[in-house]
Specification:
By secondary structure, this protein is mainly α. Helix content is about 70%, strand content about 0%.
Length: about 140
């Protein structure tokens, strides 16, 4: 036995006009590749030039140069959910900065104990990794 619906024909409704959805252009090569590379090179050159003044060189090395560009790129790549992406990405930046703080503190302690450059870096990265894992698990 066929159902009553099988004998009925259905008309498919289509819009009589074209629906246009606005889209944002994807960021180009200049913003995604060249500019971050240029900023990195300028930071390295700035640190090298100011190496006689360790506190100023450290300030340049830790300046938020890539973060603003990264935030802009993330928002541009997700135009339909900009607010959500902005909150999620900025929270991830907070966790990354806290992990970097753990790196800096652990490196300072190792350097103060005259551990040498490679051991100091190893201790710093171990602290960074541990803090990053903890923050991603609990925060």
């Amino acid at each position: 036995r066929q159902s009553a619906m099988a004998n009925k024909s259905f008309e498919i409704l289509t819009p009589s006009h074209q629906v246009v959805v606005a889209t944002a252009a994807a960021p180009g090569w200049f913003l995604t590749s060249f500019l971050p590379t240029l900023i990195s090179v300028l930071v390295i050159v700035g640190v090298n030039v100011l190496s006689e003044h360790s506190s100023l060189a450290a300030a340049i090395a830790t300046a938020p140069t890539g973060t603003p560009l990264s935030i802009w790129l993330m928002v541009q790549q997700h135009p339909t959910k900009k607010d959500k992406i902005l909150v999620e990405f900025c929270w991830a930046v907070v966790k990354g900065v806290l992990a970097t703080l753990a790196f800096a503190i652990a490196s300072f302690i190792a350097a103060r104990e005259k551990a040498g450059m490679w051991t100091t870096l190893g201790v710093g990265y171990t602290a960074w990794f541990g803090a990053f894992m903890l923050l991603n698990r609990f925060a």
